[in-house]
Amino acid sequence: MKYKRILLKLSGEALMGNQQYGIDPERLDQYSQEIKKVKDLGVEVAIVIGGGNIYRGVQAEQSGIDRVQGDYMGMLATVINAMALQSTLEKTGMFTRLMSGIKMEQVCEPFIRRRAVRHLEKGRVIIFGAGIGNPYFTTDSTASLRAIEIEADVVLKGTRVDGVYTADPEKDPNATRYSNISFQEVYSRGLNVMDMTAFTLCKENNLPIIVFDMNKPGNLLSLVKGEEVGTLIT
Q1: How far apart are CA 225 and CA 132, in angstroms?
Q2: String of b and e for 104-128 (b: at least 16 CB within 10 Å)?
Q3: Domain map of the chain by residue range?
Q4: Phi-psi region for residue 194, left (φ > 0), alpha (ψ -120 to 50) or beta?
Q5: Cα dist. 166→103, 117, 157, 173, 188 in Å?
Q6: pTM reported for the whole predicted model
Q7: What is the CA radius of gyration of the chain?
Q8: C-beta separation of 31 from 217 below 8 A
Q9: What is the distance between the alpha carbons of residues 23 and 84, in angstroms, rounded to a whole number?
Q10: What is the third-level CATH fold of 5-233?
Q11: Are the C-beta atoms of 167 and 175 separated by less than 8 Å?
């Protein structure tokens, strides 16, 4: 097995499935089954999930809501997603802990690094909700920061596309996929992988990122076994 401890970044949009907004229970179930296969191999799993299916801080400014307020609203949206995922993971037979960047004692633990590491060592799946608890940071930044803090081997960014392309594959039919690419190349070619804060954090801490299609069954399992899936950025 190539990776012992992973941080899986899921987008909120992915949870919509084919719906316009909200949470698709079938998609949640599919993700939980994929995560269970990896867990059963003995891999330690931490998850960060976005909130774009419910609310995005960026939307707020367009609707006249203060940016900081909007970002906090977005953080609360990630907690709703995290709670839904937690419930489904437990139904699938896993032990979980939800840790939040904002204190909400009734629904989750506050994020404490040592406690998070201990949960992983005990075989619990951790979900990190509410971002890092500060406005102006995305859930990508949360994924990078938490991965570094818990000393994960890799950040796995599960998306709708199967890797990083020379151009947007949904718009450009001639776009080709990279199997490997360096952090420096991503910078110089202006490729859109994560936001720059998140990306720079990974680069400076030598934390590899793999961008892959989470919706294809078996991809996550293949990845942790070290098979070539998606795009590896080092």
Answers
A1: 30
A2: eeeebbebeeeebbebbeeebbbbb
A3: 5-233
A4: beta
A5: 41, 37, 18, 11, 12
A6: 0.95
A7: 17
A8: no
A9: 8
A10: Carbamate kinase (3.40.1160)
A11: yes
Would you say how long the chain is, in residues? 234
Single-letter residue type at 47 = I
Which own/partner pairs from 18-24 qualify as long-range (CB within 8 Å, at least 24 positions apart)?
A: 21/53, 21/54, 22/53, 22/54, 23/53, 23/81, 23/84
99 φ, ψ to 5°? Answer: -120, 135
Q: Which residue is it, tokens 């690419």?
A: 181
Query: 133-182 pLDDT, tens per residue?
Result: 999 999 999 999 999 999 999 999 999 889 999 988 878 888 899 999 99
Tokens, residue 57: 């801080």
**Which positions ≥6 away from 42 have C-beta within 8 Å?**
1
Residue type, 234: T
Tokens standing for residue 183: 């952090």
Centre a 10 Å sphere on the Cβ of residue 204 and count the other Cβ atoms it contains: 11
Angle at CA of residue 93, ends 46 and 32, nearest 5°: 55
